[in-house]
């Protein structure tokens, strides 16, 4: 008779393993192939309502998993208030990592990087110490370094050498603006002309600015020189201001003002 017992046990095991199509925990009415009813409040027949599904975890025959919903439409479908929390994530790379967004139905998708979306990221440099007799003895077409300090740098990969006033740019598209404030009280000095040789790919391009002002001690003048440019990777560029061709000021007497003389750099995309 013992063989019959073994046969019966085998049949029971086989039946349990292969013929139970649904598994329910805390419920006799599992939704899908696997269903945990956290609050044990699902009905014994039919489909649980939204409030009853809120504490459920369910897996469908398609392999979709639902949390807070028993009929998930995606491989992972979470339904709830503030349903997702990711703790311990690391800082990404704004140049290469895509942004994560939600579509109108709440499905997670990715879009381009901050760089590809052309969202500006800034770097700000400022002249901390005024420069007396700036461009003294420098002829038209010549330039002089402006020794600025970093106020803010949010551009990934951009570095600045304070000793040489050299900016190293990662490849990209930039908008650059030099803001200056100066005085030049030499006799006959009524037109000040300056230029900046902005970086362009692996070379430079010259942009001029000319300002008229009164002669003498009241010869305050200022302006901005702005240029949009592209550079290749790791281009070095020194902050400088040059003497333009159209001015009538020369010799000693020019002072470049601290704080109000600045360089603004915006990276606006690849």
Describe this structure as you would to a colleague:
- The protein has 270 residues and is mainly beta.
- Helices cover 8% and strands 41% of the residues.
- The strands form five sheets. Strands 8, 9, 11, 14, 17, 20 and 21 form a seven-stranded antiparallel β-sheet that branches. Strands 1-2-3-4-5 form a five-stranded mixed β-sheet, with no helix packed on it.
- A hairpin with a 2-residue loop joins strand 15 and strand 16.
- It is rod-shaped, with a radius of gyration of 35 Å.
Throw out a few tags for this protein.
single chain; 270 residues; mainly beta; seven-stranded antiparallel sheet; five-stranded mixed sheet; 2 helices; rod-shaped
Mean pLDDT across residues: 90
Major sheet summary line: 7 strands, antiparallel
> Uncertain spans, ≥5 residues at pLDDT below 50?
10-18
Number of helices: 2
Fraction in helix: under 10%
Q: Encode the helix/strand succession as letters.
A: HEEHEEEEEEEEEEEEEEEEEEE
Radius of gyration: 35 Å
The tally of beta strands, per DSSP, is 21
What structural class should be given to the helix and strand makeup? mainly beta
Overall shape: rod-shaped
Q: In percent, how much strand structure appears in the residues?
A: 35-45%
Give the terminus-to-terminus CA distance: 82 Å
